[in-house]
Amino acid sequence: MLNIGCHLSASDGYSAMAKQAIEIGANTFQFFTRNPRGFKAKEIDETDIAKFLQIVKENNFVKILAHAPYTLNPCSADKRVRDLAKEIFIDDLKRMEYTPNNMYNFHPGSHVGQGVQAGIDIISDTLNDVITKEQTTIILLETMSGKGSEIGSKFEELKQIMDKVKFKNKIGVCLDTCHVYDGGYDIVNNLDGVIEQFDTIIGLDKLKAIHLNDSKNQFSSHKDRHEKIGEGYLGIQAIEKIINHSKLKHLSFFLETPNEIDGYAKEIELLKNIYKD
Ligand code: FE
Ligand code: FE
Ligand code: ZN
Fold first, then answer.
1. Bridge partners, 210 (sequence order)
2. Tens digits of per-residue pLDDT, 90-121?
3. What are the pLDDT digits (tens) for 136-192?
4. How many CB atoms sit inside 10 A of residue 80's CB?
């Protein structure tokens, strides 16, 4: 069975997102933990959480994916910016425990002139400051397109961050198909090779989720502009191969394509049609 979801708006709460996911044929979803501008989080409503837990149980949902605000920079040169990221991670992880055993994705950040190595060290220090032995949430580092001074566009960088994290069973990777293609991994012409590279450098056991997006830009463009499924430079054939690849097909795929809810429903239907059980 294809495990599929898309990015949903969290404004109406958890149970509303789960209901919406079911309506569009999904068995999971992604959402922002808080407003990416202003960082305000919706207050936890325990009745809503209870409803949510019931719905996901009855409908056999797989792990949902929370996304940290993309406006944070956990490896900024400015201490206040770094501290804000840390504070938000801690609060998000606390909130995540109301819906235990799910996943939390974040962008490693931009080193803005400090250099890749310094950035890697700061990110792993931040992770060590926020991860607790007790948490049930798995934190995912997202593969990035390498825009500006972004860290995480190379598998080696993610591996180095993870190597320095103390509680290794609490971290993994979310591979974004638009980002890796923009970042210089040719998943259109050499999917097997890229998967092999990932396995050699990071280990496929660390790959926990896929952001399934087409790309508005050409290979290795380092731009990060998502396109609708089949309408970008990846194309439907490459996407068909990705969701059916023997090393990937068991994972959960999260759409972050430029769509409203109807567009997501159509993409989910299309993907289910080309997925081979
Ligand atoms: Fe992201
Ligand atoms: Fe993404
Ligand atoms: Zn992106």
1. 175, 253
2. 999 999 999 999 999 999 999 999 999 999 99
3. 999 999 999 999 999 999 999 999 999 999 999 999 999 999 999 999 999 999 999
4. 8
Q: What is the full DSSP assignment across 143-210?
A: P----TTBS-SSHHHHHHHHHT-S-GGGEEEEEEHHHHHHTT--TTT-HHHHHHHHHHHT-GGGEEEE
Give φ, ψ of 87 to 5 degrees: -60, -40
- Backbone CA torsion sign across 227, 21, 174, 195: negative
Q: Global pTM?
A: 0.98
Instruction: Give the span between the Cα atoms of 207 and 199, in whole angstroms.
Output: 9
> Which ligand lies nearest to the CA atom of residue 175 in the structure?
2
> For residue 146, is it left (φ>0), alpha (ψ between -120 and 50) or beta?
left
Cβ contacts of residue 195 below 8 Å, gap of 6+? 204, 245, 247, 248
DSSP 43: P
Task: Please report which ligand is nearest the Cα atom of 106.
Answer: 1
Query: Quick one: 157 exposed, middle or buried, by C-beta within 10 A (0-12, 13-18, 19+)?
Result: buried
Closest C-alpha among 200, 187, 197, 172 to residue 235: 187
Ligand nearest to the CA of residue 68, numbered in listed order? 1
Residue bearing tokens 């934190």: 139
- Do residues 193 and 152 make contact, with C-beta atoms less than 8 angstroms apart? no
Question: Is the separation of the CB atoms in 211 and 179 below 8 Å?
Answer: yes
Instruction: Tell me the CA–centroid distance for residue 221 and ligand 3, in Å.
Output: 13
Give the Cβ contact number of residue 205 at 10 Å: 8
